Request: fold
Amino acid sequence: MGTESVQPSLIQSVVKLTQLDKLLGLGRANSLWPMTFGLACCAIEMMATGASRFDLARFGAEVFRPSPRQCDVMIVAGTINHKMAPAVKTLYDQMPEPKWVIAMGNCAISGGPFVFKGQYGIVEGADKFLPVDVYVPGCPPRPEALIEGILHLEEKITGSRRWPRVEAK
Reply:
C-alpha cells in the first residue's frame, strides 16, 4: 500500500459538509417545536413553562404544536398507563425525523409512586417503548427544570452548550 495524496477538492467538500451539519444542528436546536401533549399533573408545569413568566421564546421552543407532523420534540409529561402507551407510540411514529423525546416527571421516567403500590396498569417509564433523549426528574418538576432539560437537548443536538456552566460555591 502506497501513500496516495488526497485531492484538495475532496477535502474542501468534506469540510463544507461538516460546516453544513453544524449549521443544520444549530438551526434545529434553536427552533425546537414541542408537541402539546400531557398525560397528568406534570402537564400543568409544562404549560406553565410556556407562559410569559418563563419565556420559552428565548430558546426557540415557544411554539407548541397540536399535530405530531409539525413538531420535533415530544415531551412525555406524566403517568403512562398501558392502555395509553400505544397512542403515545403512534404519535411518536407520526413525527418527522429528526425527532427527540423528553421524559418529564418521575412517572414518565420510572412509573412514579404508582409502581410501588401495586399498580399493574402503569408503564415503568417512557423508555420502555420510546427512545428517551433527556430525563427531567421531579414530582412534578418545576418549569425551570424543563427549561434545563430543553437546554440539555440543545446541547445534545449541537454538541456544545449555549450558556456557560455556573459552578456551585
In short: Helices lie at 8-29, 42-49, 85-94, 106-110, 113-116, 143-158. DSSP finds six helices and three strands in the chain. The radius of gyration is 19 Å. The chain has a mean pLDDT of 83.
